[in-house]
Amino acid sequence: MSRYRFSDFVLSPRRRLLLREGREQPLIPRYFDLLVFLIEHRGAAVHRRDIFDAVWTDVVVSDSALSQAVRTIRRVLDDDPREPRFVRTVSRHGYQFVWPEVVEEDESAEWPPDAGTSRVPRPAAVATAVAVAAPADPVAVLLAQIANPPATADEEEEQRDAAERLHAAGTAEALRRLPDLAHPAFARALLRDTRWDTPEAGAVPIFGTPGSAAVVWHLVGIRMRRTASLVRARWAGAAAGGALAGAAGGVIGGLLLIAAPGSDASPAVLPVLAAIGAACGAVAAAGIGAGLAVSESVTRSWRTAGTVIGGALGGGIVGLAIELLSRWSLDVLVGNHTPVGGGIEGVVIGAAAAFGYGTATRRSQDGTPAPRGRDRARVAFATAMACAVAALLISITGRPLVGGTIHAIAQASAGRQALLSPLGRLIGEPGFGPITAALIATGEGLAFGSGLALGLTRRGAR
Predict the structure, then answer these.
(1) How far is CA 460 from CA 61, 186, 332, in A?
(2) Which residues, 6 or more positions from 144, have their beta carbon under 8 angstroms from its beta carbon?
(3) Cα–Cα distances in Å, from 417 out to 163, 172, 327, 406, 409?
(4) What is the DSSP letter of 123?
């Protein structure tokens, strides 16, 4: 493994150190990896997509997260984006490390007493001018920049830079002076959000401080603005995964029903059950997926608990809406008063799916989880098992899921082909008994959980 010397910096990937004249320059791990990646590929302009794939390998982040990482690296390197010496922005493409004199040497070699290769001293006249122009109270200047919510995207990025600089100058001092600002709740929320990207940052408490509810409101708004496109993509992925899983479950159930002894089902039942399964899976996954996507975007502390709450809320809201709409539709259209579940089932399945998913992805940081290969399969398995257990418990209490509801409606409306009683005969029950209901519900949970997780963790194209 090599280390790199450029200007008055030494970058050691093995030791994970960035030194400037022997003094460590702190960077959070992802930003350190990004700097290493840019230096290793310094001969070419690196596309943003390649950066995401190489640095954020197990998570998905927004373009603004990459912009913030580059901005932080520039600040640590004392670089100017308008006249870059180290990191150049390549419009509509990505970034390039442009310092021409990078010395690559073996990490096992002795560290030189002078780490610099070609220092660029600041001219005395410039240094004097900067000293004269420097504000007497830099903290006050930075606080003024974050005093009000931003009006534009550019202003938002400037505010984040100011907040990161305040952390570097001293988080406690910045918090002590927040009450003097016009919007202290917004400023605290911004400091809370940027502390994750600043290794020098101290704690930024929310609860127990004045206006904590307003701080939470602003914090959610800040994170949702920066991750809105990711939330939409993950919501759509979850809905698609749920639809595919539901359709597959409907087809498999239909095939078993046709093959069961004493069944009146014809091949026409396959597209019907597939369509019902796809619709139910898509709607349920859309609700739970939306709750998961939003919660994992706005909660960075207590992430698993946040996703469980989000999944339960999303599943419960959608489930209750389906329950009411189904009951009203059956009553108005066919006069069928069959009890239909939805609300309670949505809460339980949503919480279980979120617990399995959140537990399996608890090590993912700095973005929304997007594991690959075996890790992705492990997340799908954990989510599927959690949903299967929840579905089994729901069935034991006598509440039906999709299969049980279809059977109940078919019984009440003389829809003989959709009766699932023949499936019970496959396992030795005389009809659609508790064991049959439990097995079908468990299968539904397995299919739904795996489809939801695979849809959520799809990286997508950039």
Answers:
(1) 12, 33, 42
(2) none
(3) 65, 70, 22, 11, 12
(4) P
Whole-angstrom distance, CA of residue 133 vs CA of residue 135: 6
> pTM here?
0.81
Percent share of the chain, pLDDT over 70: 89
Instruction: Give mean pLDDT, residues 301-318.
Output: 90
Look up tokens 């997508």; give the residue.
460
Q: Are residues 8 and 100 in the same domain?
A: yes
Q: How far is CA 231 from the centre of its chain?
A: 8
Any idea what DSSP says for residue 58?
S
CA triplet 402, 360, 303: central angle to 5 degrees? 95
Closest CA to 379 of 444, 313, 455, 462: 455
Which tokens hold the place of 185? 């709740």
145 plus 97 within the same structural domain: no
| Lowest-confidence pick of 171-185, 250-264, 409-423, 424-438 | 409-423
The pLDDT assigned to 132 comes to: 45
Q: Is the dihedral of CA 184, 134, 158, 26 positive or negative?
A: negative
Q: What is the DSSP string of 349-417?
A: HHHHHHHHHHHHTTT--SSEE---HHHHHHHHHHHHHHHHHHHHHHHHTT---HHHHHHHHHHHHT-GG
Say yes or no: 180 and 305 in one domain: no
Q: What is the CATH number of the domain that holds 75?
A: 1.10.10.10
Domain assignment of residue 50, given as a range: 2-106
Q: Are 225 and 156 in contact (CB under 8 A)?
A: yes
Please choose, from the candidates 282, 311, 240, the residue with its C-alpha nearest in 3D space to the C-alpha of residue 456.
240
Q: Select from 152, 184, 210 the last residue of a domain.
A: 210
Count of structural domains, the chain: 3
Integer CA distances (angstroms), 121 to 43, 87, 214, in order:
26, 19, 46
Q: What is the pLDDT of residues 401-437, one digit of tens each?
A: 888 777 777 776 665 666 777 777 777 787 778 888 8
Neighbour tally for 16: CB within 10 Å: 12
Same-domain pairing of 204 and 243 = no
- Both 354 and 440 in one domain: the answer is yes
Same domain flag for 336 and 272: yes
Percent of the chain exceeding pLDDT 90 equals 48
Terminal alpha carbon distance of the chain: 31
d(C-alpha 70, C-alpha 354), whole Å: 33
